[in-house]
Structures are given as structure tokens and as C-alpha cells.
Amino acid sequence: MEIDPQIAVIDFGSQYTQLIVRRLRELGWFSKLYQPSELRETGSPKAVILSGGPRSVSEADAPDIDFEYLRGLGVPVLGVCYGMQLLNKKWGGVVSPGKTREYGPAQLRPVGDGNPDPLFAGVSASSRIWMSHSDTCTQLPEGAKVIGTNSEGVAVALRWADGSYGIQFHPEVTHSHEGRQILQNFVDMIDDEPGFRMESFKDMLVEKIRVEVGEREVVCGVSGGVDSTVLAILLHEAGVKLRCIFVDNGLMRMDEADEVRAQFRTLGAELEVVDASERFLAKLEGVDEPEEKRRRIGDLFVDVFFEAAANVELLAQGTLYPDVIESATSGSIASTIKTHHNRVKRILDLQREGKVIEPLAELFKDEVRALGETLGIPREILFRHPFPGPGLAVRVPGEITAEKLRIVREGDAIFMRHLKTSGWYDRVWQAYCGLLPIKTVGVKGDERSYEWAVTLRAVISEDAMTADWVELPYELLRAISNEILNSVSGINRVFYDISTKPPASIELE
Ligand code: XMP
Q: N or C: which end of the chain has fewer CB within 10 A?
């Protein structure tokens, strides 16, 4: 049972195509992406959008569309960039290849002196748009109307005889300032009500998983984070043969392994916990170089995981859409993953054998959270701060010891409790307590001490590429510092990190 989309987005290969789907879903419309050859498989969409793409419609083997079928659907159609050029050609107009690619901002001037075409209702007389094209529609077919130009008077928006639209720019990117309004105007023309409900999306995913998995056993690595938890519970809901494996690498926060176990019990899914903490700590002994630490942790993780998983019939990966489009991922994660050759190789091998499924690959983070809600996953899991794969290792610069890990665990637990009770946890993107591997002098009772320091970090960020520190109230910082200094042994100083990223990173290593 496939659920038909309300809006079918036909993918001609633009890097922005998925964003169209995202924007439509944000506007409440259930939309899905299809290849041009899949037009007949879209069911009865209430509208169709043809995306942009890198090719030229004049190339001999340029991606094509079944135009008769498209027209026969009798629904609103919008062609974006390549989609516009293709439609213009299909209508009998001429598209001329450009010598260079126009890439960047331009101005849209809706035609009609303040009384524009409904597609541009409410859009400013001069609105910033984002272009990325080389071909242009140089001759319009009969019945076509120019409804928008750029500041040089060149047509950038058309309406053809049957009322379908073409726009030369990308309304789906935020660089097109009123792109959202334009898409809203387009969906307002649809003879239906918006109907993107996460419930129905979940049903669709569950059905897809059942078909894809069949009788095979799926192995799912669980970290306790949002994505892997949602993935595991989704697979559980689908009722497929499932093994969820949690590797305790000894670099987790306070009571984390027990908490994840308890969460899974509450959610009714079985979880195998592999306690490999001793192995990880042994592997990290005497190692203080950050990349070497990461590499060892990554490699050992793969070994431990695949030892536990044994013969994998199918591996479920919590890949999200931003992981798919490189640009949206955190530089550091992407680059560290690259250093984990072992891991990448194992997964690529499985991928080649058709043994990897990525059920969340169409979803954005906030959609994963919404999906998690429909699966009954508690809010505290869905809105947890990000936690790095190498765990506390990147929060303890230099050599890792059990003592240092105990200090950051205890400090972190106190910090998080205060953030939660004061309401700051949800206002912060990520926060943690790390260890500064320097010893300074202090006094305890009558004695002088010579001990480590901890650092508290709380940042806001959108995509982890940049981050700013959060102005936590002094009283809150004072209460946290007091409690840490009074109850965590082995330290005599607490610092608050007021470094932006860049030049600092979010983690200490
Ligand atoms: P940095 O420290 O590079 O971190 O500013 C940016 C974001 O990425 C997380 N991070 C990682 N996540 N594996 C992960 O899964 C890693 O090796 C890793 N290193 C950093 C970090 O917590 C922050 O959210």
C-alpha cells in the first residue's frame, strides 16, 4: 500500500529538488519525489512540480516527461528552471542554450502593475530571487504569457495556455526571499486541502519497510540519540525481524546505557547491550592525539558492532536527508566519517550487496522528531541535545582515563539537571561539561590542592557549522559551579566557555 502524494515533484536532478518537497510539506501538503519516468506511478496527484536540473533541454538525451500524460492529469503544474524550459519546449516554444551559467541573486518583477498573476499575489514589486541556469526560453508558444521579468526585462516567469506555470528561479531556497509566498500561491490553486499528516507518512514508511525487508532480519545500531531511536522504534512498529544493538563504549554520559535500556523497555522493543567499555578504554590507553583517538574509537566500534551482529542480512542506517545532501552536514562529522575507513568500507560493502536500508533518508531532523512523536517516543528523547559518536572522548582532551571520565560525567549530570530545571535546556542547542587537562592550585579546607578544571559549554547553532555561546544567567552559572565544586572530587575550578565557532569548535577535540 503506497500512499499517493498530493503533489508529485519530478526530479530532474537539481541539488535543490528535495527542498521543494520539504517546503511543500512545511506548507502542509504531502509531496513526494519521482523520477521523470515514474510520472505514471504518482497516482492521482493534485498538482505536479517539475524540478530544476543541470542538463540542457536541447541535449539529445535530455531528461524528458510524458507531456500528454501530464496534461491529461488536468491539475496545476509548475515548472522550475529546467522544468520551465522543458514545458516551454513541449508547448512549442524555443529554448536557447546559454554560454554561461547564471548563478546567484536576481530581482523578480511581477508583471501587471500591482495587479499581478495569482502566482505572485502579495509578492513585492521587486523581489529577490535565486537563479541557477544557463538555458533560457527565447520564444514563447502561442497563448503563453510573461508574468514576471528580471530587472533587465527578461522573462523569468511564464503562464502557458492551459494555466500551467514556469519560473526560471528557485522558490524553494531561502535566498529567494518570497519563494515561500510564491509556493503558497501555487498550492492555493490546488483543488484539495493540505493533508500532510505524519501519521499517514508513518504508515507509508512502515509499509515500505515491510516490503523492502520481507523475511530478512534487520540489525539496527542504537546510540540513544534521536535518529537511531526513531529508526529502531519504526522498524519495531513495522513488525519485521529486528535486532537492536547498543554498544556501550565506556564513553557515555552518566547512567546512559541503563537509561537507553529502560527507554527501549518502555517502548516495548528489545535491546541488546554490548558492554565493551573495557575494550575501548584499553584501546585508548596512552593515546592523546585527537584524530588517533577518533580513529581507534570508530574502528573498534565497527568491530564490536559487527561481532555482535554476526551475519548481517540487512543493516538499517539512520541516514537523514541532510546526510544525503552533503552541504547540510556538519563539516566535522563529514570529515571524521571520512577518516573512519573501516566503518565506511564495511557499510559500502553491505550497500553493494543490497543489504542496507535507510528508511529515514527522505526526512529532515524536525520531521524525524514528528515521526518519533507519532511512534510514542517521549519528548525528552526527541529533543535531546546532539551527542557525538566518540562520546566523552572528544570532551576530555589528551589521554582518557577512568578518573577524567568520572569527572566529566558527574559535572555533566549536574549541569544538565540545572539546565532542565531552569528551562534553559530547550533553549540551548547543545551543552556539555568537558575537562581541561591542566592542573591548577586551589585550597580545600586547610590544604592546598593541585587539581583539574572543568569547562561548561552551552551553544546555539542551526547546523553545527557555526555556533555562538549562550548568555546563561549568572545566578544559574553560580549555582552550577557551586554544586560541581562541592560535589565532584578531583577538580578545583569551573570555567564557562565563551568562544564562538569559528574559531573554536563546539567540542574540545
Ligand atoms: P564541532 O566540535 O566540530 O562539532 O564543532 C559540531 C557538531 O558535531 C558533533 N560532533 C560529532 N558527531 N561524531 C559525531 O557523531 C563525531 O566525531 C563528532 N565530532 C563532533 C558535535 O557534538 C557538534 O554537535
A: N
Write the pLDDT tens digit of every residue in 396-433.
999 999 999 999 999 999 999 999 999 999 999 999 99
- Output b/e per residue, 364-385; b: 16+ Cβ within 10 A: bbebbbbbbbbbebeeebbeeb
d(CA 183, CA 119): 8
489: containing domain? 401-496
Residues 457 and 308 in one domain: no
Mutation test residue for ligand 1: of 222, 323, 332, 408, the one with most atoms within 8 Å of CB: 332
Residue type, 161: A
Q: Is pTM beyond 0.70 here?
A: yes
Contact criterion met (CB below 8 Å) for 183 and 171: yes
Query: Is the shortest distance between the CB of 336 and ligand 1 below 6 Å?
Result: yes
Looking only at the bridges linking them, the beta strands covering 447-460 and 491-496 are parallel
Domain identity same for 233 and 110? no
User: DSSP of 340-406, one letter per residue?
Assistant: -HHHHHHHHHHHHTT-EE-TTTT--HHHHHHHHHHTT--HHHHTPPP--TTGGGGGS-SS--HHHHH
Same domain, 179 and 286: no
